[in-house]
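Question (not urgent): is this output format expected?
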Amino acid sequence: MGPSGAGKTTLLDTLSQRKRVGVVGGEFLLDGRQLGMDFGRCTGLLELEGLADALIGQVGVGLTVEERKRVTIGVELAARPEALFFLDEPTSGLDSTGASSIVRFLKKLADEAGLAILCTIHQPSAILFEDFDNVLLLTTGGEEVYFGPIGDNGTTIIEYFERNGAPKAAPDANPAEYILETIRRAPGPRNWAEIWEDSPEALAVVKEIESINSSRSMLNLEQQNRTLEYAMPLSTQILEVTKRVWLHYWRDASYGYSKMFSNLSMSLLCGVLFVNSGNTVQEMQSRAFGVYAIVHFSQMILTGVQPKFLEFRTLYETRERNSRIYSSSAFITAMIVVEIPYAILGALVFFFPWWYMEGLPRDSHSTGYAFFMLMLYEIWIPHAAMWIAAMCKDLTVMSVVNPFIFVVINGFVGIFVPYDQLPEFYRRWLFWVNPQTWLIRGLISTSLHNIPVSCSDNEWVTFQPPSGQTCGEYAGEWISSAYGTIANLEAREDCRYCRYKVGDEFLETLEMKYSTHWRDLGIFCAYIFSNIFLVYVLYYLFREVRWRRVFARLRNKNKQD
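Got this back:
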């Protein structure tokens, strides 16, 4: 207990091992022993102050504040904490009846279930104050001014302060208000932190701690060394978390519908814009742009995945990581796996309108290859969204990072700006490390392979052969080693030249070849696995590693050296 700014929440977070910023010194001992790896799952922490005005459901039909707090307590109790139960401001935002109900419930847990409960509280009423067994009293700055029993009607703690020079308490005074008012007068003639440090009560506490440490530090040492950080193996964690995430996705029908609608709408848009593309040179370019257009709908899918990832990440980090219910590997794996069925279904919805409306090849090999490549792309998108989300603090940061990454990816695939027109610096490396380069190469090469090119009237190039020679005699040797075809080889004037004979010749101007389309698919598959790898690595680096502590240890090590 203590006034605002005394460090109650900071102390509670530190004791419960939830504090992830700053540097903490000293020792943590539980029952005289060092904390084991299973400490997190043997304890529960409820940060209830932030829920003072939050409701489950809609206003008027949702749970009351007290009921919401009970739900939160119940969730933690379901994990069966064995060691300690931490609560941060359990009575904040409640009226006297609700606060009394919560405290009585906690008292019942302590008395009947034998659960050790440690909670912060600001200024309880006299009735609530009496329900607690012991109090650790903090003053501004986090200094300890009392630790010990409260006594009936607060008599023990009141006697301590009166004995050390505090004004005598009124018979009907609220013990909590009296104590807080007394320490608020400091600094003054009495420094209550120093008085406590020199008091016999403090000496007795120190002796009791030393006695506990000496008598119990060696007990069950072998058992302590065998304790596990998580109660279940990783395989079980992954299975159960995946089930839960899948159930959440299934219940959130709007998420699935929005994904399917995005796929269908973009598929129809691409199909309408490039419907029944022909075989002229201009329409060869339209076919290429029709394939290139699909990469631009990735932003729509991405902006739907990232809020979901952030929602589950917040839940995991605020409750389940610290309680050691499951590991970050299980959380990330579940998120990755659950997106795959949606990706496959999205590919089915997108592919058929787009492929057949544009009039792309309908043979089984081309169709099957293109569908498989599109399915891989649908899998690639959410996993790319996840590694971006893993390194971003919130949606605001993601909204800044997303456009930058996808403008670079979409702009350097060799379609919007042809490969030979890219700046040499980017042509040497960025074009080749771009994952969508391999997607586009595979899809376009498949869609244009062996497609005969028929120049339109304004696409023919007309030239005149020398007198006495036919078009074939004059340009036949050249045309046999160059792109294109001559329509009238026997003519002796007005030779008509089309610069491409088949789509494969057009492909080579884009730095693409049909012969490498399976290699392109394999490389794009590798990018899917690299996405998955990045999700794990970036989450660990940005969300798991406590860099301040790492740097503090390095500084201390350098000083010692």
